[in-house]
Write a structure and sequence with these properties.
The chain is α/β, with parallel strands linked by helices. The protein has one domain: Rossmann fold (3-Layer(aba) Sandwich), CATH 3.40.50. Helix content is 45%, strand content 15%. It has a seven-stranded parallel sheet with strand order 3-2-1-4-5-6-7, with helices on both faces. Strand 5, helix 5 and strand 6 form a beta-alpha-beta unit. Helix 1 runs parallel beside helix 2 and helix 4 packs parallel to helix 5. It starts with 10 loop residues before the first strand and ends in a 7-residue tail after the last strand.
Length: 255
């Protein structure tokens, strides 16, 4: 649980903030007192998240950002500096999923897109966030991994490879900047009830039942549960935690 006031008058940068886990986390940061930069490739979704935050009394800025594009990432972060003076927290959450496909049948374009968004995107964001955190004397970064980042999943070679890569990026970068008061960790969600999961399931009762059957807890997780974990990982209370991948998956990866 974050202590009252520890996010007050601070600034959080959230990618993939237009929906799902990103939106829930942007709103959680705002509710805890932070100003939030909501970055998403879907500009209208980012704007809706910012509107929701402002309607609730918070402060937010919506920016369009394709995290696979270095210029977009730099522009989005510059917008954060121009509006709020910098950033103190970053949640690198933007990502894309993979339709089930055995590795040999996976289209090269699918592989390239997943690597561009899910891996290059996290790399680029951290690369350009870290100097901003250094100017503030430190801060915290949380990256979105997945249960697929700690186990293999049939038909998901590209996605699992990307999420395993995020774990390596997180741990190595955490060591690079541990002595600079920059804490870098990751959260690894399981099956979370979001629009992405609706696409994966096909949006059918049968599809949802198949997903829930993979969760020993007997349900999908809520985006708000992951948001709570991101704020916990970002909290100064956890200054001794670096390079950790926090698995929140209802027991999926230990069954």
């Amino acid at each position: 649980m974050a202590e009252a006031g520890e996010f007050q008058d601070r600034v959080a940068f959230v990618t993939g903030g237009g929906s799902g886990i990103g939106r829930a986390t942007a709103e959680a940061f705002a509710a805890a007192g932070a100003a939030v930069v909501v970055a998403d490739v879907d500009e209208s979704s980012a704007a809706e998240t910012a509107r929701r935050i402002e309607t609730a009394g918070g402060s937010a800025l919506a920016v369009r950002c394709d995290v696979a594009d270095a210029d977009d990432v730099q522009a989005a972060l510059q917008a954060a500096v121009d509006r709020f003076g910098g950033i103190d927290f970053a949640f690198n959450n933007a990502g894309v999923e993979q339709a089930d496909s055995p590795l040999a049948d996976t289209d090269d374009a699918v592989w390239d897109r997943i690597m561009a968004v899910d891996v290059r995107g996290v790399y680029l964001c951290m690369k350009h966030e870290i100097p901003l955190l250094q100017t503030r004397g430190g801060g915290a970064i949380v990256n979105t991994s997945s249960g697929a980042g700690v186990i293999g999943i049939k038909g998901q070679a590209a996605y699992a490879a990307a999420k395993h890569a995020i774990n390596g990026l997180t741990r190595s970068a955490a060591l690079d900047y541990a002595d600079a008061n920059i804490r870098i960790n990751a959260v690894a969600p399981g099956m979370i009830d979001t629009a992405m999961m609706a696409r994966v399931s096909g949006g059918t009762d049968e599809g949802y039942a198949q997903i829930i059957a993979q969760e020993p807890i007997g349900r999908m997780g809520d985006a708000e549960e992951i948001a709570s974990a991101v704020l916990w990982l970002s909290s100064p209370q956890n200054a001794f935690m670096i390079g950790h991948v926090l698995v929140m998956d209802g027991g999926q990866t230990i069954r």
